[in-house]
Write a structure and sequence with these properties.
Length: 295
């Protein structure tokens, strides 16, 4: 890709796709397109309209460096571009937040099924461990009257969520608060509580894909078992839900049945396990009985 010869957009995409393929990158063509679009300060769609356009050496130099960091250092594309699309929202991401995953769109989809289509005024949701704000912002973008409280223990993550809310024009409908689990919402009840908490076991660190090594440990690891925060969320949710309010949790596939059991034991009804696009159990939801939770 170096030297004085002419390289077009298509030449670069083909070369880089093959290169990433040899390096064992999961989505070589997509990654090549995202990085080239970033290096050329354009978007992926425009690349398709400009396949034959020659790329200048200065732009190629910028692209070469991105390709090197992606391939050799395994830095996720979102960290190289500072952006990740989630639920069609262009979110800003940094090393302080988990890069939102397509799996988490299963949680958004399931949560929308629990919110009336017109989003009755006064409906409030709580997103525990909001990170980039992905889940709360996706729900707010779909239900114009909805209000959200979104919490995180990490101040730097909340700053990213605030920036995303601002860029999407949703700052007026989201209240960002710092603190663990339900501590920032003492005495408050919500129509819906959602969370994609850390759910990996500390011992799993060595088995992770190289890309996950670049994600914040605080977003990934819960404790020795991996289920510690899921268990605490199920145990603590009832006093923060209105009667017939719903709790939805993202889980690792192997955790779904145990979390469903905890929800049953905690008095939730209508418990469902929702599969992700790969048909793996990914979200557990339940509705609080009519009498509501203990205060
Ligand atoms: C798996 S990430 C999810 C981020 C985002 N909700 C998403 O789905 O992309 C978990 C988030 O929970 C936060 N977190 C970790 N422990 C927490 C706790 N005890 N209470 C609240 N948030 C916590 C982390 O800082 C991180 O932002």
């Amino acid at each position: 890709m170096s030297g004085a010869e002419t390289w077009t957009v298509l030449d670069l995409l083909r070369w880089t796709t093959a290169h990433f393929g040899r390096q064992g990158i999961d989505s070589p063509r997509l990654d090549a397109e995202c990085l080239l679009a970033h290096a050329l300060a354009t978007d992926r769609l425009r690349l398709y309209l400009e396949f034959d356009k020659p790329v200048e050496e200065s732009e190629r130099a910028r692209f070469r460096e991105l390709v090197r960091r992606r391939g050799a250092e395994r830095i996720p594309v979102a960290h190289l571009t500072g952006r990740k699309e989630f639920w069609s929202l262009p979110l800003r991401v940094t090393r302080d937040v988990l890069t939102p995953r397509p799996d988490t769109e299963t949680l958004v989809q399931a949560a929308l099924g629990n919110l009336s289509a017109d989003g009755a005024a006064g409906t409030r949701i709580l997103d525990v461990g909001t990170g980039s704000g992905a889940i709360a912002l996706a729900l707010l973008s779909e239900r114009p009257k909805l209000q959200a409280v979104a919490t995180d223990v990490c101040a730097a993550a909340l700053a990213v969520a605030e920036e995303n809310a601002g860029e999407l024009g949703l700052l007026g409908r989201i209240d960002l608060r710092r603190g663990p689990l339900f501590e920032p919402v003492a005495g408050e009840r919500f129509d819906l509580v959602v969370s994609n908490p850390p759910y990996l076991a500390a011992g799993e660190a060595g088995d992770l894909a190289a890309e996950l090594a670049h994600e914040p440990g605080l977003a990934l690891f819960a404790g020795p078992a991996g289920t510690e925060l899921l268990e605490a969320l199920v145990a603590g949710a009832s006093p923060h839900l209105v009667p017939e309010g719903s709790l939805l949790l993202e889980v690792a596939p192997a955790q779904a049945s145990v979390v469903a059991g905890w929800m049953r034991a905690a008095g939730f009804e209508n418990i469902r396990v929702h599969d992700d696009l790969g048909r793996r159990p990914r979200v557990v939801s339940g509705r609080l009985a009519r009498r509501g939770g203990d205060a």
